[in-house]
Amino acid sequence: PFTLSKQDTTRSSNIINIQAMTIDDQDNIWLASGDGYIFRYHRKQEQFEQIFPTDLSTTPALFQSNPYALEIVSDSMLWVATSHGIYYLNHQIDEATGQVQSKAQMAKYEPNVGNDNPKIGKQILKDRKNQIWASTTEGLAFWDKELNHFTIIDPTEYDANIQSKSLNHLCLSASGTQIWCTTKGEELIRY
């Protein structure tokens, strides 16, 4: 049998229209709302905390789009895939007070020409080496830590039989050596 319990989100303002969620190593739940707020639910304290923006009087202009996915890379970095691109949120938690200071930045994307963010980030995953991968409308993106930007792999450039470069879902193989993707055209691709 299952044990179900509802967590009361009504006591915390702005926790409406939840679009994405993930869980960290300490079993805290992270939520992204459709209006651009990021929250963390402390399992031990059983309360919600607004992580972004930290100034409650501001409206988050950064995520004026639907968040699709969240991925935690480390204790201080959260990735957010949205309908306007991919962002990362650096946050520091003051151990004494437990307060969070956060700053969000758009992740850079370096295609063959130009310097734009991937147009739409659908899903983000972290492999066993903490490498960030994202499905985008332009193909499979991976975060180049040394160059500090995303590089896109367009599957249509590698295989003429692939009809669409717009990727939706990602899964990491059990061995951690392959990434499986679905395309908008309902194809299954293995990298």
Give a short overview:
The protein has 191 residues and is mainly beta. Helix content is 0%, strand content 46%.
Description:
Residues 110-117 have low confidence and may be disordered. With 191 residues, the chain is an all-beta fold. It is built from no helices and 15 strands. It has a 4-stranded antiparallel sheet with strand order 1-2-3-4, with no helix packed on it. A 4-stranded antiparallel sheet has the order 5-6-7-8, with no helix packed on it. A 4-stranded antiparallel sheet has the order 9-10-11-12, with no helix packed on it. It has strands at 18-23, 29-33, 38-42, 47-52, 67-74, 77-82, 85-93, 100-106, 121-126, 132-136, 139-144, 149-153, 167-172, 179-183, 188-190.
Topology record:
Layout: E1 18-23, E2 29-33, E3 38-42, E4 47-52, E5 67-74, E6 77-82, E7 85-93, E8 100-106, E9 121-126, E10 132-136, E11 139-144, E12 149-153, E13 167-172, E14 179-183, E15 188-190
Antiparallel strand pairs: 1-2, 2-3, 3-4, 5-6, 6-7, 7-8, 9-10, 10-11, 11-12, 13-14, 14-15
List the main descriptive attributes of the protein structure presented here.
single chain, 191 residues, mainly beta, 4-stranded antiparallel beta sheet, globular
Distance between the termini: 39 Å
Structural class: mainly beta
Query: What's the pLDDT, averaged over the residues?
Result: 76
Task: Summarize the biggest pleated sheet.
Answer: 4 strands, antiparallel
**Strand residue percentage:** over 45%
Would you identify the regions where 5 or more consecutive residues have pLDDT less than 50? 110-117
Radius of gyration: 17 Å
Task: Describe the strand arrangement of the main beta sheet, using strand numbers.
Answer: 1-2-3-4
Order of helices and strands: EEEEEEEEEEEEEEE
Number of helices: 0
Globular, elongated, flat, extended or rod-shaped: what is the shape? globular
Number of strands: 15
Give helix % range. Answer: under 10%
